[in-house]
Specification:
single chain, Jelly Rolls, six-stranded antiparallel beta sheet, 32 strands, 5% helix
Length: 458
């Protein structure tokens, strides 16, 4: 029989064990650096890690192995990153000192943070919510190249404010290894814009990279290699009056002299029907007498003559306003049902009826919308890859127009993109859209939709 002292000792030990093993309260769900929830290793192409946050105060910390002199990005805005809540990203160095943070980089309060490693070691990336709400998330991350030493960050800028016109303009400067220059441009609503080292007097003595950022410094289109010599070019369409920040840098530490060329494109009429009776660009002309007006318009209300083909996987293109899971996308559009509804890998193309472009055709505006993993071009890495092309042989082969830019950057939002088609002016062409989900797995709401094709002349 145990003595009273032995019983008291057992009770004390049990009390200690209960205190040690008791579940953590909500205030203890967030670890402190250098503690972490998982280890991640970046590469040059985006990788992703999925997780979720519970009660208020919850967070997740990921330890990333970094190399001194290299730059990195963590994001919920691109590369397959997403979140069901208003996010916050904070990055700490090996010694747990804060080196970067971001709250709102893109739509929906989603975060994106860029940072550089001064020495090899670890970076601790903390994911948290700006509100009490939690939910699931997918964080995308990658290495972005040589650290940009002394590089200005948006919304600061080195040159501008410049206003592009329909004629090419240029600006020249130099870059040292790892540095960058940021330009600020004033954009007008309804115009396309091009920023180039490939044409219009643009040139560089090194392998270039162009990145763009909108008013709030949310990432826009970017490009590394668009033409010979590793030179870059970015084209985009502005659906509002806004500022655009353009960052010029050298790939892999490239340096030297450069000349950036830039211009605006022709006016877009909005509805694109050329029948609004308005003088849209103040040139005293209206409707189809207006040289800035759209002459080809495809709204997909009644659209015969489109054909779909397999590129090695499933084919599921259809016309409709309601997706296979019942989402109303707001207009009758050409959409793919994706792997979510077919249960197989979607890898296909859809080809338009032939269209004869007018002799002065300069650009194309297309509306895109998707709810998927927001991949880039076919073969560009990630899932749900998309391309827009133009063909002169009935769609058998095609020239890719998007240069590996994402055709959709935000889930369930219509976005208008601009493409230069001046090289095909006067020719009979077919428009081609290609889609590859890469895998056969996806939530039931996955889709990719196209609407309102407007071919315009200068």
């Amino acid at each position: 029989m145990s003595s009273p002292r032995s019983i008291r000792s057992l009770v004390l030990i049990a009390s200690i064990l209960v205190a040690v093993l008791a579940p953590a309260t909500s205030s203890a769900l967030c670890r402190n650096c250098p503690q972490m929830d998982a280890i991640i290793t970046p590469a040059q192409l985006y990788r992703t890690v999925a997780g979720s946050l519970g009660v208020s105060g919850d967070c997740r910390i990921y330890r990333m192995t970094v190399t001194g002199g290299r730059s990195y990005r963590a994001t919920f805005c691109e590369g397959g990153g997403s979140a069901a809540f208003d996010t916050m990203l904070e990055v700490k160095g090996t010694s747990c000192n804060v080196i970067a943070s971001n709250a709102d980089a893109c739509a929906g309060g989603k975060s994106q943070v860029d940072f550089s490693a001064s020495a090899s070691g670890y970076a601790y990336i903390k994911v948290s919510s700006q509100t009490a709400a939690g939910g699931s998330f997918v964080m995308a991350y990658r290495e972005t190249g040589v650290a940009q030493v002394g590089c200005t960050r948006c919304p600061s800028y080195d040159y501008g404010v410049f206003t592009p016109t329909a004629s090419w303009q240029t600006h020249s400067s130099t870059l040292s290894a790892g540095s960058c220059r940021i330009y600020k441009f004033a954009l007008q609503v309804g115009l396309g814009y091009t920023f180039s080292f490939c044409q219009g007097g643009g040139t560089a003595s090194f392998d270039t990279n162009i990145e763009t950022f909108y008013n709030t410094c949310g990432a826009g289109p970017s490009n590394d290699d668009s033409c010979a010599g590793g030179l870059s070019e970015v084209s985009l369409y502005s659906n509002s009056g806004q500022y655009l920040y353009v960052r010029v840098s050298g790939s892999n530490g490239g340096s030297g002299s450069y000349t950036l060329a830039y211009r605006s494109g022709a006016e877009s009429v909005g509805s694109g029907t050329c029948t609004d009776g308005l003088d849209n660009d103040a040139d005293t002309l209206t409707d189809c007498a207006d040289s800035g007006c759209s002459f080809y318009y495809q709204p997909f209300n009644n659209s015969p003559g489109w054909n779909q083909y397999s590129l090695g996987g499933g084919v599921s293109w259809a016309f409709g306003r309601i997706t296979c899971n019942g989402e109303d996308i707001g207009s009758n559009a050409l959409q793919t049902r994706s792997n979510a509804c077919t249960g197989v890998r979607e890898w296909s193309k859809v080809v338009s009826p032939p269209v004869t472009l007018l002799p002065n055709a300069t650009y194309l505006v297309v509306d895109f919308r998707s709810n998927d993993e927001l991949g880039v071009c076919l073969g560009g890495g990630g899932f749900d890859q998309k391309d827009m092309g133009i063909s002169i042989d009935g769609g058998a082969t095609w020239t890719v127009l998007n240069n590996c830019y994402q055709l959709s950057t935000v889930d369930s939002v219509w976005e208008s993109l601009f493409f230069d088609i001046s090289a095909f002016a006067g020719q009979t062409v077919n428009f081609v859209f290609a889609y590859d989900t890469v895998d056969a797995i996806g939530p039931a709401d996955f889709y990719f939709a196209i609407d309102n094709i407007r071919a315009c002349e200068q």
